[in-house]
Specification:
By secondary structure, the protein is mostly helical. It has 15 helices and two strands. The chain has three domains: 136 residues, no CATH class; 107 residues, Type II secretion system (T2SS), domain F (Receptor-associated Protein, Up-down Bundle), CATH 1.20.81; 61 residues. A two-stranded antiparallel ribbon has the order 1-2. A hairpin with a 2-residue loop joins strand 1 and strand 2.
Length: 318
């Protein structure tokens, strides 16, 4: 039975890799039918310029069965763009399924209870999504850290007589990644026929940062009602610097509380390791006896809830 389940898991893993390599089960047929229907209708700029809109995304289907809805495809596409990954939605789905099946197969081979392989498979599938979310947060932090410098350079270029697009191009040449990549994508969108408002809106959607939303909203309002854009950008940059200063002060004031959360979460783990070393027979009952497993699971749940509550308390938004 164990050999059969492990063989089935490995076979399913190989099957997903084959689908990824051959392209079977992608959204190609759905996208092809959509292209044929759009050829009979006039296109707007949002649907004809790549990167301007995330609409018109088809779901992922295999043998006529829809596995991923179009709304989920839209969400994953936005997440992959914000994470700075070059994967498409089909490759992302295959990666998540493959990691889940691989962990499930390894657990099935190692653990004598084949049914327990389902839990690592689900955790592996979710772990890829968590990794993407971590990349999104890290990349967003880098973009926000570079934004004040971008505003100062753009304001200086506008005072020197540059237009908005010329200032963005000059700024993109001087800034490092990842902000330079996003600015070049915005300039590429305008070169392909999109208006400045559409390109900036697409930039705001790709980044997904509240700070960027403030900056882009200020630029769009200035283009609608007029005003000194360089002065507006200087004021926004000053606001961003003050917010960053306040964030640093709050992190300093709440450092002890955050350390308390880590200590409270780490004490039970440390005590468990010490008791396992001192009396392995007595402590091992937590893993062998049914009541011990229930107590251990309850302790993990309560510790997780406590750590989550402490994290929410000390996480003050500015």
């Amino acid at each position: 039975m164990l050999l059969f389940l492990s063989t089935a898991a490995v076979g399913a893993f190989a099957f997903t890799i084959t689908l990824w390599a051959t392209g079977i089960g992608s959204a190609a047929q759905v996208q092809a039918s959509e292209r044929l229907s759009r050829m009979r209708q006039p296109q707007s700029i949002e649907s004809s310029v790549p990167g301007i809109s995330l609409k018109r995304r088809g779901g992922i289907r295999m043998a006529g069965i829809s596995f991923v809805s179009s709304d989920l495809v839209l969400q994953w596409t936005r997440q992959l763009e914000r994470a700075g990954l070059t994967l498409n939605v089909r490759e992302y789905l295959i990666l998540r399924v493959a990691v889940g099946l691989l962990l499930g197969a390894v657990t099935t081979i190692v653990v004598p209870y084949p049914i327990l392989g389902f839990v690592p498979a689900v955790l592996g599938y979710m772990a890829v999504g968590m990794w993407v979310n971590m990349r999104i947060k890290s990349r967003r932090h880098k973009l926000e850290h570079q934004m004040v410098e971008m505003l100062q350079m753009l304001a200086s270029g506008l005072r020197a007589g540059f237009g908005l697009l010329q200032g963005l191009e000059s700024t993109a040449e001087q800034l490092p990644e990842p902000l330079s990549i996003e600015l070049r994508r915005t300039l590429r969108d305008t070169a392909m026929g999109a208006s400045v408002e559409q390109a900036l809106t697409a930039l705001n959607e790709r980044v997904g940062s509240p700070d960027f939303d403030i900056v882009i909203t200020a630029i769009l309002i200035q283009r609608s009602v007029g005003g000194n854009l360089a002065e507006i950008l200087d004021n926004v940059a000053h606001t961003m610097r003050e917010r960053e200063r306040i964030r640093g002060e709050i992190r300093t004031l709440t450092s002890q509380q955050r350390l308390t959360g880590f200590v409270i979460g780490g004490i039970p783990i440390g005590l468990g390791v010490i008791f396992m070393i001192i009396s392995p027979d007595f402590t091992g009952r937590l893993f062998t006896e049914p009541m011990g497993r229930v107590m251990l699971a309850g302790a993990v749940v309560l510790e997780s809830i406590g750590f989550f509550i402490i994290s929410k308390i000390v996480n003050i938004e500015i």
